[in-house]
Amino acid sequence: MEFFNSALGKNITFVRPAHFLIRGFTGLPNIKYYYVFLFIIYLVSVLGNTMVMTVIVLDHNLRTPKYIAVFNLAFVDLTALIPKLLDTFLFDRRYIVYEACLSYMFFVLLLASVQSWTLVTMAYDRFIAICFPLRYHSIVTKPAIAAMLLFTWIFLSSLVAFTVGIIDRLSFCGSVVVKSFFCDHAPVYRLACNDSSLNNIMAYVAFIIVLCCPLILIAITYVCISIALSRIASTEERLKAMKTCTSHLFLVAIFFLPVVGTNIAAVASYIHPNARIINSSLTHTIPALLNPIVYSLKTEEVLNSIRKLCKRYSLCLY
C-alpha cells in the first residue's frame, strides 16, 4: 500500500493499493475455452473492421458523411479490451498495478461511450436523409459530421477522465479483488473504505449520458422517420427508404439491448457475477464482430466498392 497525505494540510490519509486483483469467473470449469472463443471473435472483428476502414479510405465514392461515421465506428471497434482480457486470464496475469488499472478503465469506458454516440450520429444521418431529403446534402456535410464526431470525442474524453480521475481520491484499505473481468468502474470504486458518494453520482451521470440519452435520441429520430414514411404514398418507395435504416437499427439493437437489459435486471433482481461477466464480455465483442458484417454484406455500396477494389488490385498483380 502507498499512503498520501492531503495537499490541504489536513489530517487526511489516502491509502492507494500497489495493485488490484481481477477475479473474473468463479467456479466455472474449462473456462479457458470461453476465452479462446473470445479470441477468435476478436481476430475476426479486427480483420472485418480493418477491411471496412481500408475500403472507405481507398474508395473515393465512400468518402461521404455517412461513411465518416461508419469509419469512426469501425475504429472504435478495434478495442483494447479483449487482448488485455486474454492476457489476464489465459496467461493468469490477474494482478494489475493501480495506475494501469485506471488507464485501462479510461480507454474501455471511452471507446464504449464513443460507440454509443456514433450510433446517434448515424441516426441523425438517416433522420435528415428521410425527413428532409432535398436538404440532405446541404445539412449533412463532411465538415458537419466530422465536427459532431470531434465534439463527441472531446466531450466524452473529459467526462470519462473526470469519472475515472475521482477514483484517485478514494482509500482502498480493505480488499483489492475486483469482482469483474477487467478494471470496471463500479467494482473498483466500491472497494473503497472512505466516502464514494461522488463516484456513485458520477456513475449514474455517465450511465444517463452514455446510454440513456443516446437511446432516447435514437428513438425520437425513428419516431420522426416513421411519421415521414407513413406520408409516402408508394409502398415501394416506403420499403426502399426503410431498407436504408435496417443496418443502423440492427447495430443499435445489438449494442444497447444487452447493456440496458443487464442494468435493468441488476436493479430489479440479483444477477450472478458470472452471468454479468459473460453478458458484459459479449457486449464488448459481438457488436464489433457484427458491425463490419452488416456494413459489408448488407450494404450494396460497400459490396460494390469491395468488388471494384478486388478487380482493380487483381489486375495490378498481373
UniProtKB/TrEMBL annotation:
Keywords: Cell membrane, Disulfide bond, G-protein coupled receptor, Glycoprotein, Membrane, Olfaction, Receptor, Sensory transduction, Transducer, Transmembrane, Transmembrane helix
Entry-linked InterPro entries: GPCR_Rhodpsn (IPR000276), GPCR_Rhodpsn_7TM (IPR017452), Olfact_rcpt (IPR000725), OR51/52/56-like (IPR050402)
Residue ranges of the TM segments: 33-58, 70-91, 103-124, 145-167, 201-229, 249-271
GO cellular component terms listed in the entry, alphabetical order: plasma membrane
Listed GO MF terms: G protein-coupled receptor activity; olfactory receptor activity
Domain G-protein coupled receptors family 1 profile span(s) in chain numbering: 48-295
Topology of this chain in the membrane: Multi-pass membrane protein
Entry's localization field: Cell membrane
PROSITE patterns (UniProt xref): G_PROTEIN_RECEP_F1_2 (PS50262)
Descriptive protein name: Odorant receptor, family 42, subfamily A, member 9
Organism field: Seriola lalandi dorsalis
Lineage of origin: Eukaryota, Metazoa, Chordata, Craniata, Vertebrata
